[in-house]
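Exercise 7. Predict the joint structure of the components listed below.
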Amino acid sequence: MRPSLQVDENGRLKHFLSTEGLSAPILTQILDTAESFVGVGERAVKKVPLLRGKTIVNLFFEPSTRTRTTFELAAKRLSADLLTINIAASSASKGESLLDTLRNLESMHCDMFVVRHPESGAAHFIAQHAAPHVSVLNAGDGRHAHPTQALLDMFTIRRLRGDFTRLRVAIVGDILHSRVARSEIHALTTLGAAEIRVVAPRTLVPAQVEGLGVRVFHDMQSGLKDVDVIVMLRLQKERMQGGLLPSEHEYFRFYGLTRERLALARPDALVMHPGPLNRGVEIASDVADGPSSVILQQVGYGIAVRMAVMSIILGSHAAGTAGGAH
Ligand code: NCD
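Solution:
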């Protein structure tokens, strides 16, 4: 395998920054390893000793609930030592540069940084400048990538629906600002999904998105027809410059997922959402809480998938030995 920033010369994952450029065997290794960790959370003692003695630092430069807490639980369930740095209360808020913060943490002998940052490319930048013994996990950078979210979505789909090659998946909503959409499109393509659709108003579709191999729809009627999986996305108002949408009410009228629109998809279609949900904006409450929704299962699987990525990168074992977690 050709070495890259993410994969070393032996084909092992070194950093996890993006689903783009990772091979199907590596993505599948993560999903298979996650499978062995699902049971850990269901035990009385929710811990395995795989990363005992390792130190993981959560560096969150942007608000987060699900992603931060599930990374924390993943590290703890693997018995790693974990620090979460609240950037608002750290020296970064006193003007310390990102690299200086990094150098200081490295000198404390940390093994892994889990980074969320509002700038696209921040996790790659940190990985390029990190000391050789440090690995970087991208927990979301700007509009660019959110690879563990994409893989926990792949894990949910594979567990509940099996083989990707028969599946039609629609990603609906604010594609333009969504790092989740980008990471999912790459992962679904690599794993061989039969069809990937994006459904959104013209103002929320990135230019040349068709180049990624997706079909673009601007109306729910045709976009949701006969799909197996619907991934709903939040309107990322914090990233909008303004003027992209008339109003939330109008948006819901045309692009909100209601029970009537869900009926356009296959009868057993899964409804997914990375959270946070805006009820009544992109999704109706009765759909979010309804029988097709797997939104809360996604959150639980997020812990197993994050444990898998951490243990593959930091564990001295090969993927197979994660089976010891059973
Ligand atoms: C997403 C994110 O932060 O990119 N949420 C998440 O990680 N669970 C999507 C969003 O913020 O809408």
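Discussion. Residues 66-67, 140, 146, 149, 179-180, 234, 236, 274-275 surround N-carbamoyl-L-aspartate (CB under 6 Å).
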